[in-house]
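Let's sit down with a protein and look at its sequence and fold side by side. Once you have written the record down, we can walk along the chain together.
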Amino acid sequence: MFTGIVEEVGQVVRNRISTDGLKLVIRARDLLSQVPVGGSIAVEGVCLTVTARESETFTADVMPVTAAHSTLESLSPGTFVNLERAMPAMGRFDGHIVTGHVDCTGEVTTITESGNAHLVQVRVPATFSRYLVLQGSIALDGISLTIADVSPGAFLTSIIPHTWVHTSIRHKHPGSGVNLEYDIIAKHVYHYLSHHPDQATMLTAPSQGLSRELLREQGFL
């Protein structure tokens, strides 16, 4: 589990693509001494396992299914990537719940300046628009962000100066692909209600108050 608070921006050294998947080699500084071989680290929002570690780099294997649902396959040597260690059990949430399991990729359509912020609009696949909640959370390349506006097939987020300077988002441009992980609570609620339409009706129906009949209908009597 992660929080979406980027700890370091690393840089891709090598990205070897084969029929078995990818093997990423990434240069990092501060995090290397704190992530052992076998430990988890989020790279651009994707949870990966450290399989080898040198003095300035670490290696991670990427399965084909992960490569197919993320931007990792397109990372070229020199690309800057967001890094975050897995959250310890006693850690605190400064962002939101991020699993490191990317749902899909989106595409940056516009980046504009607004006061001290950068407004970034991202196009998303139509089937994932249902998880976009105004003022809700979303992880973009592993960065915990707030959705500032929602439009058909897209969302807008506002990047504060600190996040802009200390993450890989400042290297993006219109046309850049980004990894998206939607809020896990929104996904679970949508999934539950879509498979239990009777519960959705109960939530929207006018309250009838508490009665023995209602308790009996719900199995309490």
Summary: The radius of gyration is 20 Å. The chain has two domains: 8-85, 104-190. The chain has a mean pLDDT of 91.
